[in-house]
């Protein structure tokens, strides 16, 4: 067991969708910085519990919570459950999201409702609940998308719209919560190697060609930016691209 003494020592973090990909990497990085961590999941129970075991191996407390960010009660409820299980809340990472791509005319109402429910309403409700629980100097960090800055081709209307809504939300949160020392920031990943978008997948060559660095990023590289923002007390209402130059 490793005892961690980083800048988040004694703090509690909630990472939504923390069972895999960017969420899992973020949960582990925050644990290495000393935080106790809660992660939410919908279907990937075993993966989420594996993250818990890895966090505990670092000497931190951890809990996996089944919570669907598309369900209004569960989106807000995960915040309270985290605070009850781990004794408070200092960091909220709004990572859970869904991506639906397709021609504008073929997107169904059900798809529109689901994407907006998870990517926008769920983030709003979790942030609202966190604001009621978060201690002075807390951090709200939301995972956006490089498609808010550059949509490289057709098929991204719904996803880009949902992620773009987070820009206004983040700026407004910064203004509203600033007097309490709570910061709110937004991280825009570009093409990142995860099971949802693998670097060796069928769409990878085109995505890679759009970056200045000519490669996919890693989940750990995005997590590093999140960790940096948890330490940055004078940065709020800002957007940060971790996209390999996708928007350059």
Automatic annotation (TrEMBL):
Top-level division of the source organism's lineage: Bacteria
Pfam families: adh_short_C2
InterPro entries per UniProt: KR_dom, NAD(P)-bd_dom_sf, SDR_fam
Keyword annotations from UniProtKB, A to Z: Oxidoreductase
Protein name: Oxidoreductase
GO molecular function annotations of the record: oxidoreductase activity
Domain Ketoreductase: 11-190
Family in the record: Belongs to the short-chain dehydrogenases/reductases (SDR) family.
Keyword RNA-binding: no
Gene3D superfamilies: NAD(P)-binding Rossmann-like Domain (3.40.50.720)
Keyword Oxidoreductase carried by entry: yes
